[in-house]
Design a protein that fits this description.
The protein has 202 residues and is an all-alpha fold. 76% of the residues lie in helices and 0% in strands.
């Protein structure tokens, strides 16, 4: 196994274990055992379990945020609030709803565990993107202050993670005959409309 394969094997194993057991309940020994490597390999590639988690999350969020910014750059001067919300949500749904993506589950677990180190890391990584989205929303809703935009943005992220993590299990249980509740495109459109309305109600 070459160096690239070894590092990826560690990342893949950690992703699976973090998603299943949570970060706090996963030991380095479990990761090394599952990946078939020794502790020195984790230290060599990542420095420790925390940095391993950060790189795992960043490997997904970095291209996601890059795509969000590309879509923002493509907006015209006459963009609407829904256009901005769509730029934020659609890439996330496209990337994070893939069958092999455990990042929503890992983030949900970390939130419940109150992983402050990960929260600080995510905030640092999100600042440049957040600044662009705040400006774009403010262009369409000039009466909204920064605090209001940030608060509603937090609600939007919460709704997004809920959909990605638990799908529409409650809605499906209430109306099992509604096949649209199983379609990603339908759910994405409803989420975009819901979040747009949340921003637009000044």
């Amino acid at each position: 196994m070459d160096n690239t394969d070894t590092k990826q094997k560690i990342l893949d194993t950690a992703q699976e274990l973090f998603a299943e057991h949570g970060y706090s309940n996963t030991s380095l020994r479990q990761i090394t055992s599952g990946a078939g490597v020794n502790l020195a390999a984790v230290s060599y590639y990542f420095g420790g379990k925390e940095q391993l988690l950060f790189e795992l999350v960043d490997n997904t969020l970095r291209p996601l945020n890059a795509e969000r910014l590309l879509r923002l750059d493509a907006l015209t001067d006459e963009h609407s609030t829904e256009d901005v919300v769509r730029c934020f949500l659609e890439p996330a749904i496209d990337i994070l709803s893939k069958d092999n993506c455990d990042i929503p589950c890992i983030l949900g677990q970390a939130h419940r565990e109150q992983n402050l180190a990960l929260q600080a890391f995510l905030a640092q990584e999100a600042r440049p993107v957040a600044a662009r989205f705040i400006d774009a929303i403010h262009d369409t809703l000039p009466n909204l202050g920064t605090a209001e935009i940030l608060a509603r943005g937090e609600f939007m992220i919460g709704a997004l993670l809920h959909i990605l993590y638990s799908q529409t299990t409650v809605a499906r249980a209430l109306a099992p005959d509604q096949q649209q509740l199983k379609e990603n495109t339908f759910i994405a459109e409803q989420l975009i409309k819901f979040c747009t309305a949340g921003f637009s109600n000044e």
